[in-house]
């Protein structure tokens, strides 16, 4: 930025200097021509009174030649003694004087001169006085050129300094943000970049960076907790399997191998359920959008209930024609997770309801169990979270079903919550209805 600003200022100064020199050169050239003409008029006045000597000493210009009516040089400046006529042009009949710039004058063969021809009446007829002086140089004068160049250099230097200081001050917060970001690692995401006090683009950059770091820290913390909980839950069935095998090997002659196999198969089922749930969570965490197709929520629930083996009585209240948009397989997984949870905690009955409500399709799963305290209702949706009552009723749960169900609901633009009920836990799913055709 400093180099660019300096280059632009240097270009502007160069153009300005050339314009100033052009204007001043034209003015100086006209002024010099007027001076040369004044000298010619003065000499003509002296010639009419016969006061011109044959040789003029210091006439005030570079050269003078006085030509009589016959074309003879009757008076000349001392610098042109013995030289031929400097010019042959004469003024028009309508004007007494004219001027030209001659660079090949016989009297000045190696110089460019401003030559003025002045005609006047004198003894015998029309006489002509030629007066000449050097042209004004393109730079007008050395001191003027030096002043313009010096002023331009000073202006370019001030521009460079001002731009450098301004840009450095403006980019100072960016440098601080860069340094802080360089210190932040995957193992320490608690640091944040400094936020400038001015409400500008850099402040918005810092705020956005801090928001990104907040999300990254949350995601990393969730992954750490997930890995810790997963390792703990995976270790439990592995430990049980190892115990069963070691006990059977210690008393191999008396071991009931079919019973041992059934016990190992149960642990394998738990491992398989854990791995399946974790893969499902990984797919949901990737943020891939679900398939979008119309699905009759009541029909979907009816089919899932028909193919399930019943552990408790299931009461249906299914309103037909409640059409939502989403992935049938994912919604089926959500429903089965809610039904599994409800059956584990129900005493004797499970109620499943599908209805319309305020432009939403609503699915309710209500059990007649002990219910969930209000302060624990959000806790059960966290991964690997199982309340003490759930652990005592079913030690085989993975603690991921409700978390998966909520993420599926959110991926479909809906919500999954636990709402008040007279008895048991009442899970309520709300999904946007499909647009009418």
From TrEMBL:
Coiled-coil segments on the chain, per record: none
Gene3D superfamilies (UniProt xref): 1.10.287.130, Histidine kinase-like ATPase, C-terminal domain
Main location: membrane
PROSITE patterns hit by this protein: HAMP, HIS_KIN
Top-rank taxon, per record: Bacteria
Database matches in SMART domains: HAMP, HATPase_c, HisKA
Catalysed conversion reaction: ATP + protein L-histidine = ADP + protein N-phospho-L-histidine
Keyword set includes Kinase: yes
Membrane-spanning parts: 138-161
Alphabetical list of Pfam families matching this protein: HATPase_c, HisKA
Keyword Membrane on entry: yes
Keyword annotations: Kinase, Membrane, Phosphoprotein, Transferase, Transmembrane, Transmembrane helix, Two-component regulatory system
Molecular-function GO term, any one: phosphorelay sensor kinase activity
Official protein name in the record: histidine kinase
UniProt source species: Microbispora catharanthi
